[in-house]
Write a structure and sequence with these properties.
Chain B: It comes from Mesorhizobium tianshanense. The complex is a heterotrimer of chains A (535), B (491) and C (167). Chain A has 535 residues and is an alpha/beta fold. Chain A is built from 20 helices and 16 strands. A 7-stranded mixed sheet of chain A has the order 1-2-3-4-5-7-9, sandwiched between helices. In chain A, strands 10, 11, 12, 13, 14, 15 and 16 form a 7-stranded mixed sheet that branches. In chain A, strands 6-8 form a two-stranded parallel sheet. The chains are: A alpha/beta (535), B alpha+beta (491), C mainly beta (167). Chains in contact: A-B, A-C, B-C.
Amino acid sequence: MQRITSLVDVKSQEFRLNELHNRRLAAELKERQHAVRFNRPERDRERLRRQNKLFVRERVEALLDPETPFLEISTLAANKAYDGEVPSAAQVVGIGIVAGREVIVHADDASVKGGAWYPLSVKKIVRSLDIAIENRLPVVHLCDCGGGFLPLQAEFFADRHHAGRIFHNQTILSKMGVPQVAIVMGHCIAGGAYVPALSEYNIIVQGSGAIFLGGPSVVKAATGQHVSVEELGGADMHTSVSGTADYLANSEMHAIAIARDIVARFNRIEKAPIDRVAPEPPAYPASELYGIIPKDPRAHFEMREIIARLVDGSRFHEYQPRYGRSLVCGFARLHGYQIGVLANNGVLFGDSALKGAHFIQLCDMNRTPLLFLQNITGFMVGRDYEQGGITKNGAKLIMAMSGASVPKFTIVCNHSHGAGAFAMAGRAFDPRFLFTWPQAQISAIGTDQATRVLTDIKAKQLAVDGRHLSEQELEAIRESISEEYKERSSAYYATSEIWDDGILDPADTRNALAMAVSASLNAPIETPRYGVFRM
Amino acid sequence: MRKLPFDTVLIANRGEIAIRIIKTLRELELRSAIVYHDLDAGTPAVSMADVAIPISGRTPVAAYLDTAQIIAAAHEVNAGAIHPGYGFLSENAEFARKVLEAGIVFIGPTPENIELMGDKIRARKFVQRNGFPVARSAIEEDDPATFISRARSIGAPLLVKPSAGGGGKGMRIVRDLDALEHAIVQARSEAQRYFGDARLYVERYVEKPRHIEVQVLGDSFGNVIHLFERECSVQRRFQKVIEEAPSPALSLELREKICETAVNIARSANYRNAGTVEFIFDGSGFYFLEMNTRLQVEHPVTEMITGIDLVAEQVYVTGGHELRLSQSDIVLAGHAIEARVYAEAPARGFAPTTGKVLVLDYPGGPGVRIDSGILQGQQITTAFDSMLAKVIVHSPTRTEAALKAERAMQELVLLGCETNASFLARVLADEQFLSGQVHTGYLDENPHLAAGEFASDLSAFLAAAALLTRPVRDSADAVPELHASLGSWRN
Amino acid sequence: MNHVLELEGVDYQLWLSPCKQGYRLHLGDEVTAPIDFCHQGDGCGILIIAGAREPVRFAIDGDTIHLHIRGRTSVLRYRDPLSALALAQKHAGQLVARAPMPGVVVATSVLPGEVIAAGTALMVVESMKLETVIRSSQNGVVDRVHFKEGESFEQDAVLVTLSAEGH
């Protein structure tokens, strides 16, 4: 495989300005992540200590094998919601190694609102179990949830993908033979009680752990019965009387040791056989990504330079290098795994769509997972293109992408707009994982275009009312529309709403993808099968 | 070979000393018999003896102290002689007398010798009367009512000792006179239990004393010779740890003087057989401490520097022969060091350890002697003394001997029961030891020797243990290669 | 969760991770690599550590590893996390008197059923030529005296069990 020869001048003024800018964005990301992970009011920390509880991050670290990676999912979920008071949506989710096995870790964070589930908490838990189902990953639940946040129940209770989906997903996992272990580290009340109950194995911590459908006060209100927490759903009772819990632990650490021992009993899954060789680091350092991603999001950049800093040895076998050039397609290796890369090098034309559709089928036949690198403003518009069948060619790309059985992974590098964002394995097409870079913009159309359209509409509405706007007034409206639009198409907003699996520092992308590919291979890859391609 | 009035010798002992005695008996073409408690069944001493007779007791130790059973065993196997080894009944005059009354030869001094010299109080009075130097003391039985006040009047520091004691058992140093009475109560209880004799005496404790002892041999014809001295100053809790011969502390002149004194003490006591006259040496002068009327644990260092088999000499003189050697035949050659391997944990205050000997590999080579009582597979318990083996080396000079001994301690592989071998190696390499400037408080003043910091060895031990522990290695092997290569990466 | 190996009374939290040339030993922030162990027959092997080859004699007895390296013998114990963490709590609640070191019982001072106060002498034991009085750390009723006079015991052996009845 040929090595990509980088044409980037790392000494140029442009490179250094970009680097400064992107390093600042990466630092900001790390700061925000650190804050949501660790900044808690002292009184909440103190309460945990009083209850003999470890902080959720300590629990997760104790659960994981030391010296192994943890790919955290949706760290900044809910960062733009609930006035920023529910960091990480009060959930820690990620893929880690427990007793040598790849597992999903899902942990309630009792330091946030007593571990109450908010609508985005529910969304994050459902997503974590979706990941478990799609990739056949066992789950370890660290349960410490005080129940749903009642004032917002309309946003998390009744719908298809609301709280009930958590339990639905648990039953699906069980049916698939993918085991779950739950540790009851606090009170698991009402719906929360079913997380341990629906897990194959569960452990309850003496003293702090309890499982019941209704707490003592609910029981008193409902039946007049006075009952203690211990009698109602204590560790002793559940492990010796009701059989709801399997193992009694003396302490959280003891419970974690038991959970690790249980996971160590899980059968190792034969991974989907895809081509793999010994890994090799890229020839160009990942840190150079900072100098390549333009400071100005509207500026074009060469995707091959990005690929050169993600893949093994910076080696890239480009497919159809002379045709459909706005979509770069080719084979590469990532930590030794063979992957097929589709990267936007401009707007999608008919030929690039056809090339992409063909390449996807090559990869699917060849059992080669697909990596989509998005920087897409959309499919080309205009009479000539429509006459050339841009829509039906786009449909071919979407059909091929959606129908491919191999695992798909998406990185939103910069722009993600229009139907092009769908065709490049957008969230709706269930790529196994979708990550975003800090400067990315995710919206139906670009900010400038949207601002123009929205300002026009506003002006027209006002004109109907007989109002005529001065240029100054128009500018003010334009400004405010643009601000709000930008905010709601930012990576931070997207990740807050869990439209992705998290924002990545570009330099972390290679490792994150390697873990994602490895995780995806726990599920068998089905034989290629497609719908009807409009010819 | 000279004729002896017996052809079978019963060994009333166990462990390494029993084996040591069997080896000489074989050389003398005598049959060896041994008594053993059930706990010792299967130990090498029992399997090496030509015949072994089980004995029992309320405790394992009690079995080896049971005169009646031992004499009955001797009769059973037609043993004409009994060798008591050291410890147990070796210095029990009553036992020696009963053995003789049973028509059996006692390979040791006469009961009268034991009565006189084995009793510390009687011995020191006798020695003092004969004009030899002794330390200031208060003896309880002189006047029990005034014992404590007499002891106080000597002034601190004091050493409280059982009259019938030996081997450091029941001894206590008193630096604050207020603690004297308490120390006496405790020492008395231990004295009663170990020696069946609660009498005590108190003597002035010499700070930084050196323990130097002279090996003597006497026969029934009034001949007494010495085999030079041994230095046993490296002690912990009055327990000897490293012994050597000759003493690095003595000038030629002092050596001659101390050996002469020992011979004279033994001669004036009409001493027969092997014995040891112990002295305290304060750097310039020495005074009589006690006499041990038996073969000592550390006798091999004397054997190494003189080339004489002390057990053989014991057998001959008790067999009625005149000493084969005269003083001028005894020549001191080179330097010998003995290191005692104990089942104990120096870092935990020398607490005794137990376990099964899983691997046992002794050092060897020229000038290295091992007196061992254990075998691979043997269970080490606390029922008996915790000494497992002695490693004795012989070299032309003290420096070479210390180096050889250190190397031997490093080469000694005894796994399964913690021992003091590494500690011994550290002592043998310690500058103060190498300079010869040791005294009985040397180990207490240098606790770092017992602590044994790991420093650079720590990671080697942890690495080896980690690699050899299945759960540790398994959890490393279980991690997929990709994840292992990413280490503790976090996004 | 790290593994724990105990050496001379100190617990070392450590982890082994694989690397190209063998393994890495992680001890706190300290990493020793590469390390490996080649077996050479019964109880013998070569430890490869930081480029050096160290001959090792070893014996494994349950969770106890006896090692002889660089002329030095040591005993290490693997602390199984399940039992160590399970015990950690149990001991706190149980009323037992344990042996501070191996030894022999000289005399027992209490009988089952006897009501005792904290500080009561339970037993006199002998170890290292010294007598030690084992005392009760709390009030209670003697449940069981586990050793008779003259019997020997190991370190940490339960000598006397108490129950809290009547208190």
